[in-house]
Specification:
The chain is an alpha/beta fold. Helices cover about 30% and strands about 25% of the residues. Helix 5 crosses helix 8. The two termini are about 25 Å apart.
């Protein structure tokens, strides 16, 4: 585990998961399993590997399964103790022992920016990571969040993870434009950011994915941010205010991302991790 000044990771997990209905009618989308592990557990493992110790989870109605998953099940453990199935719970038990889990509820669904602001009570005045569990990443050498921690340690300001997407898909993402810095080909000083622009209006095809490292001044900015695209408070709009001051870095990460908020991406992730498990 790497040492870092960022010790808390915020998980916005209050969304309805409508693209997976009826499966998500009573089950949180973050609990959808890729093989035998739910999406949010992959995210927590990535955060732990990046040096985070506290997992701050913003939930909503019908999300109790997330809290139950990151808790000890004495009855179940008693039933399988001493059997060949006991090892199945070893990974989650290790996470429970390593991490502190805290929860708050987002009462109204007003966008990612609002979800992050809702988590302020769990974060306080310190830099923190944000991880969207339905963006599942596989980076064999070093997790995406751990890569971003190194960038944060160097530049000391907000960091967003980006990847190139087809120009036709820019209306699905926050899109950045900026200048490569320090002679590197994967680190940009962000100059502008736009939430879900039409392809003809997009400043680039560099899309923000569900990994952020944010400084605590973002909370005051979010409080003043008006609803944007979709009538929601967008984290992209808030970060733009910091980008205007040169305080946002975009990092093109190493690894593969799966959009597990869509059925196609979810199936691709299952196939990918299945092939890895059999290798």
């Amino acid at each position: 585990m790497m040492k870092t000044t960022v010790k808390k990771c915020l998980f916005p997990a209050a969304g309805y998961g409508t693209r997976f209905l009826p499966a998500t009618k009573a089950m949180p989308k973050e609990m959808l399993p890729v093989l035998n592990k739910p999406l949010i557990q992959y995210g927590v493992e990535e955060a732990v590997d990046a040096g985070c110790e506290t997992m701050a989870i913003v939930t909503g109605r019908g999300k109790r399964a997330i809290e139950d998953h990151f808790d000890i099940s004495y009855e179940l453990e008693h039933q399988i103790k001493g059997t060949s199935k006991e090892h199945y719970l070893s990974e989650i038990r290790n996470l429970i022992c390593k991490c502190n889990f805290s929860y708050t509820r987002q009462v109204q669904m007003k966008g990612l920016g609002h979800a992050i602001l809702t988590g302020e009570i769990l974060i306080g005045q310190e830099p923190f990571a944000v991880l969207l569990a339905d963006d599942l990443c596989d980076a064999p050498n070093k997790g995406v969040l751990a890569q971003m921690m190194q960038v944060y340690e160097q530049y000391g300001c907000c960091v967003v993870a980006i990847e190139e997407v087809p120009k036709s898909q820019t209306n699905r993402y926050g899109i950045i434009a900026g200048q490569l810095i320090d002679g590197k080909d994967d680190i940009y000083r962000v100059e502008t950011m736009v939430e879900k622009p039409d392809p003809k209006d997009a400043p680039s095809n560099l899309a923000i994915i569900g990994r952020y490292i944010l400084t605590p001044d973002i909370f005051d900015i979010l409080r003043e941010t008006k609803a944007g695209v979709g009538g929601e408070i967008q984290i992209t709009d808030a970060l733009l205010e910091l980008a205007k001051k040169g305080k946002v870095i975009a990092y093109r990460f190493e690894g593969k991302r799966f959009d597990c908020g869509s059925v196609d991406g979810f199936v691709m992730a299952i196939n990918h991790f299945y092939e890895i498990s059999k290798a």
